[in-house]
Specification:
The chain is mainly alpha-helical. It contains six helices and three strands, in the order ααβααββαα.
């Protein structure tokens, strides 16, 4: 089987191109795609508990910790104990973080509008249905439980 005949190849190929595109745009503003992604997942007004950010974004704890430390050093976020539950820490946006979040949001909207203007709604609906189905299969089924014999 050739790589381009596998299901994961076009997904990975497109994702790498999207990541490069976002990273190129983010670097113009002193950021990265990962940084922008975190900014977009922090509640603008109330902040987000640090324990919810990783699972919400599907990010590994180590990567998230590194990214948050970097963002704190850049003055984009700050940490504050939750007002109701002092054991919980909320990640909040600084004014700079809010501005950078708006840049990230605009970039994502611009990317999506550009793609949507070039691909029909019907094809995009099929794409989303297919990706949701693949994600559902990956979430609920054990793909590699039984060894497969390749002939």
């Amino acid at each position: 089987m050739k790589p381009e005949e596998t299901i994961d190849f076009p997904i990975r190929w497109a994702w790498h191109r999207i990541a490069r595109l976002y990273n190129t745009e983010a670097s113009k503003h002193g950021g990265s795609m990962a940084l922008g992604y975190v900014l977009l997942n922090i509640d603008f007004e109330n902040g987000t508990p640090s324990t919810k950010l990783g699972p919400q974004m599907g990010m590994e704890p180590r990567s998230l910790t590194r990214t948050l430390k970097s963002m704190e050093k850049k003055g984009l976020i700050y940490r504050e104990p939750d007002k109701k539950d002092k054991r919980m820490v909320r990640i909040l946006l600084t004014e700079s973080g809010k501005q950078m979040r708006e840049i990230s949001k605009t970039t994502v909207i611009q990317f999506n509008e550009s793609i949507q203007s070039k691909i029909s709604k019907k094809k995009l609906d099929t794409f989303f249905d297919t990706m949701n189905e693949i994600n559902s299969i990956l979430e609920t089924e054990s793909i590699f439980d039984e060894p497969k014999v390749v002939s």
